[in-house]
Design goal:
The protein is an alpha+beta fold. Helix content is 32%, strand content 28%. The protein is built from nine helices and eleven strands. Bound molecules: adenosine-5'-triphosphate (ATP). Adenosine-5'-triphosphate binds next to α1 and α2.
Length: 303
Amino acid sequence: MNKSLPQESCPKNKIISIKAYAKVNLFLAVLNKRKDNFHNLNTLFGRIDLADRIILRSLPANEIKVVCAHGSVPEDESNLCFKAAKLLQQRCKCNCGVEIKIDKRIPVGAGLGGGSSDAAATLIGLNKLWRLNLNQKKLANLAKKIGSDVAFFMYGLSFAQGLSRGEKIRKLPQLVKLRLWFILVVPEIHVSTPLIYRKFDELLGLTKPVCNVKILNSALRKDGPFAVKSLLFNSLEAVTTRIYPEVKLVKKMLSDLGLESILMSGSGPAVFGLVSSRKEAVTLGEKLRGQKMPWQIFVTRTI
Ligand code: ATP
C-alpha cells in the first residue's frame, strides 16, 4: 500500500453516492473476554435494506469534512467515516480531500451497525473516488482497524458468520438464496455498546446459548425461517433488558401480536420479529403504529 497519489492527480468536482445498509444479528454468542478487553464472539449477521446514503464529493485540498444533520452523529474526527478517510489517506499516502455527507436513516446507537456500515461505504467509495485500486482483501484489513462490525459490510453479503471480535468474516454460501422478512422496532433509547459489555462481564453472562451459528445456518437452509425460532439467540439481550425494560415491552408487544421468532439485535435496543412475508410485516407494522408508542417501526428484509 505504498502508493503515492500527488494532489494534482486528485479528482476534481467528482461525486459518488453509495448506500450503507444496516445489519441485524440473528445469533450473537459472547464467548469470553480477551486480554485486550474485547470479547470473542460467534455471530450470524444479516444485512437488511434499511440504509443510510453516503455522498462523497472530492475536495481540492487534502481536507476531510463530515456533514450530517442528525444530532447524535458527530461531525468531527470521531465520526467513523472520518476515521475511514483518514486511514486511507495515511495508508495510501494520498493527498486528496473529501466532503462526506451522511443522509442518516438507520437509527443511531440501536444495534443496527449504522456507523460501521457508513465507514465501510466510505472505504469502498473513496477507493473509487481517489482511484486507489485497493483490492477487497486490503480494504477489509483496513475495515478491521476502524471497528469490529465494519468488515462484514465490506463484502456485500446478505449473511455471514462473524468470529473473533466479529471482524473475522466467514461467508455462508448455503444461505445466498435465503431472503427473510422482518418487522423491526426501535425504541427511542440510545444504548452504549461498551456499557452493555461491562454489565455483561459483571453479571457473568446471564444466559448461555442453546445452539451455535452452524446449527442455525443448517436449520435456515434445510427447514426455512420458521424452524429457527428456538435457535435465535443474543447473549446481550438479558443485560440490555435489565437496564432498559422498554426492550422487554417491545418483545412482549410483538409476542402478543402472535410473533414467535423475536430477538434483540447487537447490544440493542432494536428488536426484530421474523415474519413470513412483506404483507404480514406491513399489517403488523400498522397494528404496532396504532399503539402510539414512541418507537420507530420498519418493514425490512435481508438484502
Ligand atoms: P455499535 O454497536 O458499534 O456501537 P450501533 O449500531 O449500536 O453500533 P451506531 O449507530 O453505529 O450504533 O452508533 C454508535 C455511536 O457511534 C454513536 O453514539 C455515534 O456517536 C458514533 N458514530 C460515529 N460515527 C457515526 C456514524 N457515521 N453514524 C452513526 N454514529 C456514528
